[in-house]
Design a protein that fits this description.
A alpha/beta (395); B mainly alpha (390); C mainly alpha (334); B: 390 residues; mainly alpha; 0% strand; C: 334 residues; globular; disordered N terminus
Chain lengths: 395, 390, 334
């Protein structure tokens, strides 16, 4: 009895040891790294385009590359990769690499990863964090490290109210999207009876509060759903009961599709409006025919904002650019411009970003003191015959 | 339960365990690590413990091969692994020592974290050093409040009620603006600097400082529980775990001791929560999902419920493996599930089984006992299910 | 309504106008919970184990029936494309076929779970807690495997056109749809079949015997291993049926759909008295109603519904420590 137990323990220990040992070999490289291997530190230091020493200069990336929201992080990471590949092709003597870390969008996982990135002295700037929650959790770390970050996608309004010097973003925040949505509902859709549903998430609740305030007495019904549930009957009943002619949903695409399908099933014919969380092909495929005629707003530009960029993206990934790809491309361009100008320390890079003012593919790129982009453009898109069709800025 | 009633043969499993098993166990344990350890001279043992403690404190600066993960190792230790150990020690009091199945332990972790966040950032600016005991006290109070009405429940009923409690705490935090709702609470205070241990220094200094703090908490809690385990309280818990009815008949005030187990467990869970909150400085309800309760429980069972050293290893394994498995990218939780299953099949009593264990196995019984391999006593009221529920 | 959480009590008229629609939703949810709860309660009855992986059995069945629907090309045929459905009977036939696929997948996966995650442990007389962790491991592995390698990976599997909801009649001004009727009636039929099976059949008597006293049952010649396997099978069948009915109600499935349903169903089983078949049915329906009322009647916040469900559970257990109907698969009449 004793013997077999010891044997079993030994077997288990051995198995565990094998798991550990089998991955011991690749520990030098962080597992999340998919960095271009050619872009690793070449010893060549002379003759870079701008005569800059940039061997080993690395840009960090932090965001969800897997998990429920992995697609959004991938969109951004791909956009950044395209910018870097272009730069490296144009500057064979100054190759920049990217260190991508996968947080799965989870603040708890993001925090130790942020430390890894911050401790890596070769990283002089960071693209990300992709989501607002993880930004809140990791910014104190980046702030302490003096590592400038440019988020292509975190839109929570509070992020720029903490006095963080290192935080920047290239798209307008939820508070600016809110008025755009209100304007769309009042001006373009011309609705007088609006229902507002949120998903109680950081993003969804924040945007819903802003829209509810803007609509004031036009907002006649409110509801909150639990995104983990599959049935939203309570919210549907509330909308039906109030007889709304427009429903604004503040949340992400998967729930938006389910909610819309259930609204239509219950005979609610109100116009469906949603924010940038729903701007995804999967919203259309999920909701099916019910999606037709739905409005989706975004402070991010439509992914096809720049034909040239779309072509490059397609060539590299065999797919259309996704939400936040152009923003990540723009954010990376700012940092690459800094490297080309010889800003290869974190402090220099931070100062360079502060002062940056040049056109990007989405908008004029310039930050105010809090790190917000100048301007507050809100774009909108309508689903027509199963396709997302961009309509430009909200009039 | 007093020591002097040794004359009559103890009538029940519980009594047998408290009074008689030491003799029976001694022969069996002759060759185990445990007995070898006990046989060492006391100074040698003390030296060994000191070296071990020293090694643990130095762990982040040793840069061992094999172990690094793509997350910074010191940060991983300070933010995830050591708090997990603390949580597992606390849950072990409830599950391993007293035998009460708790599926909502994350609730106490959340109460601790939220108390600290509310005291130091959201609604007040109480100094960190005062907030910690307050938060732990609030967590213990939560344990008492939950335990008082529900500890009459047995086995799985208690499990589901605790599960409900964990969810209620999270949903309340999510819906209540007072607790920051889904946006959570930021700017939570850090501990004050202590000489060279800087909580406000660079990231590396900060994480190292937190690591030292967390390890210190773990060591203090560990030795506190060790003392408790061998005291009257610990023996009463064992009796309750093995057979609650018998313990009650033998004069153990079971309700009182169960309540104590709950409160102490809750306090330790709350302490771990404050540690997490003051390190990350930002919490929101998503940090306290039900899944975490399950992982905490897995840590305890993985290590061997009731054996504190085992539980420490279990917690390290459960928190470290998913990080170590990062190279598997998105499939790592799949493999984690597989490892859990395989472990349970090959080592059902955990990495290190509890030392005071009854070895009389119910060979013919199809009924597994609640936690331990227990005696399938055919005379016991309620048939073969008697050990678990009334 | 900036602080809509906890605020927003409705007027009396508003309360009334939402009461009946939310009652209908509650019954539909409750029917699904009740069927899944049966899987928990049966296994608990005979083994005294929380079969944590039952939720993944539900999820697998949901995916299985979706695949069947796609293979049979139901959505296209309903909208007139492909080879259109001509008669009502044909439609019922197709739906019944999908139901059978779902139920079979449920039963099979439950049996596989028993074989892989439970039987080795039973043979080793492992402590009960170990079964729970093993089941949790199985649950993780199954749902992550579907999330990783399943037909939609981590996205929603949506078949919105598969079932066209039509309003049938009104109850106190609330619309009742064909889907609602199918779910409630379908669940009632399955539950009735199960109650009869457990109380009348020979195997059912075996299940009750093992639940009451496995040792004695074994001595009396009952093949305990076989009975345990059948119990898992029957629980899986119920979860499979529940999954298909749920799909008719909301045609979406995701790799993690089992988790929230499973927790609710388990709560329902405990609420009614775990181990007790009628208790699971009662608990399921009650929990569905409470959750739906909680979500609808006080403002409109689904999180309040979830809180209401758990608070009710805690309150009920404080008054009746072994659930509404008490626990006893063996001794109850059903």
């Amino acid at each position: 009895m004793q013997k077999s137990k010891i044997g079993r323990l030994a077997a288990t220990t051995l198995a565990l040891a094998l798991v550990v040992a089998s991955c011991g070999s690749d520990t030098k490289e962080p597992a999340g790294t998919t960095a271009d291997s050619t872009a690793s530190s070449t010893a060549d230091t002379t003759g870079a385009a701008a005569g800059v020493k940039c061997d080993g200069v690395t840009i960090g990336f932090l965001g969800a590359l897997s998990g429920d929201a992995g697609a959004l992080g991938d969109n951004a990471a791909n956009g950044a990769q395209i910018a870097i590949d272009e730069f490296n092709a144009a500057n064979p003597d100054c190759k920049v690499s990217i260190d991508k870390q996968d947080s799965q969008g989870d603040p708890a996982q993001a925090t130790p990863l942020a430390t890894t990135l911050a401790n890596n002295a070769s990283i002089i700037a960071l693209i990300g964090p992709v989501f607002s929650g993880e930004s809140k959790a990791t910014m104190p770390t980046f702030e302490t490290a003096g590592l400038p970050v440019i988020s292509p996608s975190a839109t929570n309004a509070q992020l720029t109210t903490n006095g963080w010097k290192m935080f920047h973003r290239v798209l307008a925040n939820d508070d600016k999207q809110g008025p755009g949505i209100v304007q769309l509902i009042k001006g373009t859709i011309k609705s007088a009876k609006v229902g507002v549903i949120d998903d109680a998430s950081d993003y969804g609740k924040g945007l819903a509060v802003s829209v509810r305030a803007g609509l004031a007495e036009l907002d006649i019904a409110d509801a909150t759903i639990d995104p983990k549930a599959a049935d939203y009957s309570a919210a549907v009943t509330a909308m039906k009961d109030a007889g709304v002619d427009t429903v604004f949903y503040s949340g992400y695409y998967a729930e938006a599709a389910k909610l819309l399908a259930q609204l239509r099933d219950a005979g609610v014919t109100a116009t469906f409006v949603s924010g940038d969380g729903a701007l995804d092909e999967k919203f259309v495929t999920g909701a099916g025919a019910a999606a037709d005629g739905a409005y989706i707003t975004a402070t991010a530009s439509p992914p096809d904002v720049n034909v040239d960029f779309a072509k490059k993206y397609n060539a590299a990934y065999g797919d259309e650019p996704g939400l936040y790809s152009p923003e990540a491309y723009d954010a990376t361009q700012i940092i690459l411009a800094g490297i080309a100008a010889g800003k290869v320390t974190r402090a220099d890079m931070a100062a360079f970003i502060e002062a940056y003012d040049a056109p990007g593919i989405t908008k004029q790129l310039k930050f105010d003191v809090t790190g917000e982009p100048e301007g507050s453009a809100v774009f909108y898109t309508i689903v027509e015959a199963g396709k997302l069709v961009s309509k430009g800025l909200v009039p | 339960m007093s020591q002097d009633t040794t004359s009559a043969p103890p009538p029940t499993a519980a009594a047998k365990l408290v009074f008689g098993s030491r003799f029976a166990a001694a022969a069996r344990r002759r060759r185990t690590i445990e007995t070898r350890w006990k046989a060492l001279p006391r100074p040698l043992r003390a030296l060994f413990v000191l070296v071990l403690v020293g090694f643990i404190y130095l762990l982040p600066s040793l840069h061992l091969p094999i172990i690094p993960t793509s997350s910074d190792f010191t940060a991983l230790l300070a933010i995830i692994i050591v708090p997990y150990v603390l949580v597992a020690l606390g849950l072990n009091v409830v599950v391993g020592m007293a035998g009460l199945l708790d599926l909502g332990y994350v609730g106490f972790y959340a109460v601790g974290a939220y108390s600290l966040a509310i005291l130091t950032s959201q609604h007040a600016t109480v100094p960190w050093l005062i907030s910690i005991p307050l938060s732990v006290g609030i967590s213990m109070l939560a344990g008492l409040l939950l335990g008082a009405p529900t500890l009459r429940l047995r086995g799985d009923y208690l499990a589901i009620v605790t599960l409900g409690f964990g969810e209620i705490i999270r949903l309340l935090a999510k819906s209540s603006d007072w607790m920051g709702a889904q946006s959570g609470i930021g700017n939570i205070k850090s501990p004050p600097n202590l000489g060279p241990i800087k909580f406000s220094g660079t990231i590396q200094e900060r994480n190292t400082a937190f690591y030292y703090l967390a390890v210190t908490f773990v060591i203090v809690v560990f030795f506190f529980l060790r003392r408790l385990e061998s005291s009257r309280v610990g023996r009463s818990w064992t009796a309750i775990r093995e057979d609650e009815d018998a313990a009650e008949h033998m004069g153990v005030p079971t309700f009182k001791f169960k309540l104590w187990a709950f409160a102490i467990g809750a306090g330790i869970g709350g302490l771990a929560g404050t540690l997490y909150a003051s390190n990350v400085r930002f919490i929101n309800p998503d940090n306290f999902q039900l899944k975490l309760s399950i992982l905490f429980l897995a840590a305890v069972v993985f290590g061997g419920p009731g054996n504190m050293v085992g539980v420490v290893f279990g917690a390290v394994a459960v928190s470290y493996l998913p990080e170590r498995l990062r190279f598997l990218n998105t499939t790592r939780y799949f493999w984690f599930g597989v490892v859990l299953m395989v472990m349970m099949v090959f080592r059902p009593q955990g990495l290190l089984p509890r030392k005071l264990q009854q070895r009389i196995k119910p060979r013919d019984s199809v009924m597994p006992a609640f936690i331990d391999v227990s005696e399938g006593d055919p005379d016991r009221e309620g048939g073969p299910h008697g050990t678990a529920t009334a | 309504m900036a602080t809509l959480s906890f605020g927003g009590f409705l007027t009396f008229a508003g309360f009334l106008s939402r009461f009946w629609p939310s009652t209908i939703t509650g019954l539909v949810l409750g029917a699904v919970y009740a069927l899944v709860a049966l899987g928990y309660t049966l296994v608990y009855g005979v083994l005294r184990l929380i079969n944590f992986a039952n939720s993944e059995v539900f999820m697998l069945s949901a995916f299985g029936s979706f695949l069947a629907i796609e293979v049979l090309n139901v959505p296209q045929r309903l909208t007139g494309g492909g080879d259109p459905v001509k008669t009502g009977w044909e439609l019922i036939g197709i739906l019944a076929l999908c139901l059978v696929v779902s139920v079979v997948i449920g039963g099979l996966s439950a049996v596989v779970v028993e074989r892989v995650a439970y039987r080795p442990l039973r043979q080793r007389n492992a402590p009960r807690l170990v079964f729970l962790i093993s089941a949790i491991g199985a649950s993780f592995a199954i749902s992550e495997a579907v999330g990783e390698w399943g037909p939609q990976q981590r996205d929603e599997y949506a078949l919105t056109k598969f079932f066209k909801k039509q309003q049938l009649f009104k109850v106190f001004g609330a619309d009742v749809y064909n889907a609602n009727v199918i779910v409630v009636v379908g669940a009632a039929v399955m539950a009735l079949a199960l109650v009869l099976f457990v109380s009348k059949s020979r195997v059912g008597r075996g299940i009750r015997a093992v639940a009451q006293d496995a040792e004695t049952a074994k001595l009396m010649g009952v093949n305990v291993d076989r009975i345990i396997l059948i119990t898992f099978l029957v629980g899986g069948l119920m979860a499979g049926g529940a999954a298909f009915l749920y799909e008719i109600h909301t045609p979406f499935a995701r790799y993690d759909v089992g988790f929230s349903i499973g927790i609710k169903a388990f709560t329902a089983a405990v609420l009614g008295g775990i181990g007790n078949v009628r208790g699971a049915l009662l608990g399921g329906v009650l929990l569905g109603l409470i959750e739906s009322w909680g979500s609808s009647l006080f403002g409109s916040d689904q999180n309040i519904g979830n809180v209401a469900a758990f608070v009710t559970l805690v309150l009920v257990l404080m008054v009746r420590p072994s659930g509404l109907l008490g626990e006893s698969l063996g001794r109850s009449k059903a």
